[in-house]
């Protein structure tokens, strides 16, 4: 379905951490605009959910224990909702830098993610995901039991389209190694992206034991994509 011809209702426009951020409704769907550029929408959630689902499939089985998830980027709450729908997930630490995105998830976006932030398993951090990663890696170094089974990176539209320039760190060797430090052996990390990224894929393969690239059709008729890497 094409939503481009439908009238847009601006719900809120405000100053964010790195510019103007806006929530708008187009028909029954919501869109987030960042500095005048489309960032994400509720009609693009199929691949986002699939990335989390495939990562969890590698970690969850009847004979395995509780699963902890570290998530960078809240967005419209789809990744969080997908993680929470798995019974073995006992804790999800979510880092979101934009207070407005958190507010919207507690407001109008709550209706599309089944009020995900109200789940008792969620630990919400209003902060930069890079700094959260460093903090969690330090905690794991002191106590390996604090490691995560899954890390989700959904802060950008891939390494070629960053919502914040500082997020480039997440896709470079240092950032990928830091994520690895946060994972249990055999743990998985997923990255949402728009297209295949050869340079980024090569970096992943140099650090992780298994790397997968998958595409999936969105409601718009266009493909979304994600990388999945296993520690």
When the domains are counted, the total is 1
Q: What count of helical segments does DSSP give?
A: 6
CATH architecture: 3-Layer(aba) Sandwich
Shape: globular
Structural Rg: 17 Å
* Alpha-beta content class: alpha/beta
**CATH domain class:** Alpha Beta
Number of strands: 11
Helix content: 25-40%
Fold and architecture overview:
The chain is α/β, with parallel strands linked by helices. It has one domain: Rossmann fold (3-Layer(aba) Sandwich). About 25% of the residues lie in helices and about 35% in strands. It contains six helices and eleven strands. The strands form two sheets. Strands 7-6-5-8-9-11-10 form a seven-stranded mixed beta sheet, sandwiched between helices. It has a four-stranded antiparallel beta sheet with strand order 1-2-3-4, covered by helices on one side. The longest helix has 14 residues. The chain is globular, with a radius of gyration of 17 Å. The model has no long low-confidence stretch (mean pLDDT about 90).
Defining traits:
single chain; 231 residues; alpha/beta; Rossmann fold; seven-stranded mixed beta sheet; four-stranded antiparallel beta sheet; 6 helices
Please render the helix and strand layout as text:
Blueprint: E1 8-16, E2 19-26, E3 29-34, E4 37-41, H1 46-57, E5 67-72, H2 78-84, E6 89-95, H3 99-106, E7 122-125, H4 129-142, E8 148-153, H5 173-182, E9 183-193, H6 198-207, E10 210-217, E11 223-230
Parallel strand pairs: 5-6, 5-8, 6-7, 8-9
Antiparallel strand pairs: 1-2, 2-3, 3-4, 9-11, 10-11
